[in-house]
Amino acid sequence: MRDPAERARRREMLALPHIAPLAAYAESLRNHGEVPDFDPLDGGIHARVLFLLEKPGPMTAEKGGSGFISRNNDDPTAEATFNFLKEARIPREITVLWNVVPWWNGTRNVTAEELRDGVACIRDLVGLLPDLRVVVLVGAKAARARPLLENAGYPILTSAHPSPVTRAAYREQWDAIPTEWARVHEYL
């Protein structure tokens, strides 16, 4: 996603039938702050696994980043996500990556109000995913949304966040991520 031509190519793909409803959904949230787009190389509305990370970071921002939530972003968390999904043998076309708090507002902090607002948005998102079978909450901040999502009717798994901070401070949790993510196969 470092290449401007690749970002432009993916931006053009946002009109494809599998991703257009999610692009419209992301657009509808932009009154909250900067909301990146879904990666059109993922499963889009056909996803069976929803990975909910915590909150977009600066590499998802349109200015200075890709403008997408993507495992192909140019940062260590995206790289780890790419590698862990591959190690867990989860095909890209059955996944969609998003965030419990879908907007970037210049800080990685997540307030209780943001979490409530974000979860309300997630309820709308799952309505756009008719093939959804399981949700994975990625990171401690995302896991705080579990009680608010439990009534959605999907199995909910959790894992540590694939960030360099987790790798440095909680190596056992970092190493367990692919195993935790592979548990989605039980629900497919």
- The overall strand count is 6
Overall shape: globular
Determine the strand fraction and express it as a percent band: 5-15%
Largest sheet: 4 strands, parallel
Q: On the 0-100 scale, what is the average pLDDT?
A: 92
Task: Give the proportion of residues in helices.
Answer: 25-40%
Query: Largest beta sheet: what is the strand line-up?
Result: 4-2-5-6
N-to-C SSE string, H for helix and E for strand = HHEEEHEHEHHEHH
Indicate the low-confidence ranges by residue numbers: none
Q: How far apart are the first and last residues' alpha carbons, in Å?
A: 30 Å
Structural class call reads alpha/beta
> What Rg is obtained from the alpha carbons, in whole angstroms?
15 Å
Helix count, DSSP H or I runs of 4 or more residues: 8
